[in-house]
Design a protein that fits this description.
The protein is mainly α. It has helices spanning about 10-25, 25-40, 45-55, 65-75, 75-84. Helix 1 (about 10-25) crosses helix 2.
Length: about 80
């Protein structure tokens, strides 16, 4: 086990203290349990949810992303030099 120091806002520390007391464990144990639950989540599902929530920037709202990327690649000096 490793000892780690973290900084918490006062209100978060108070909430942790109350929750730990109500569950009957130390603040450290409560943090460990909470982190374990968070880490056990399916990372693929989390990533999928993250990307589903993304919205395009207003400046790209009317632009087809695949066409935009193809255009960038066609003008890339680096890609042209590597093909030579």
């Amino acid at each position: 086990m490793h000892r780690t120091q973290i900084y918490l806002q006062d209100d978060l520390h108070e909430q942790l203290k109350r929750r730990a007391r109500s569950v009957g464990v130390s603040i450290s144990e409560l943090i460990r349990r909470t982190l374990e639950k968070g880490i056990e989540k399916d990372p693929v599902a989390d990533a999928r949810a993250y990307f589903e929530r993304l919205q395009p920037l207003e400046s790209f709202a009317g632009i087809d992303s695949q066409t935009y990327v193809k255009d960038l690649r066609s003008r890339s000096r680096i890609l042209r030099e590597s093909a030579e």
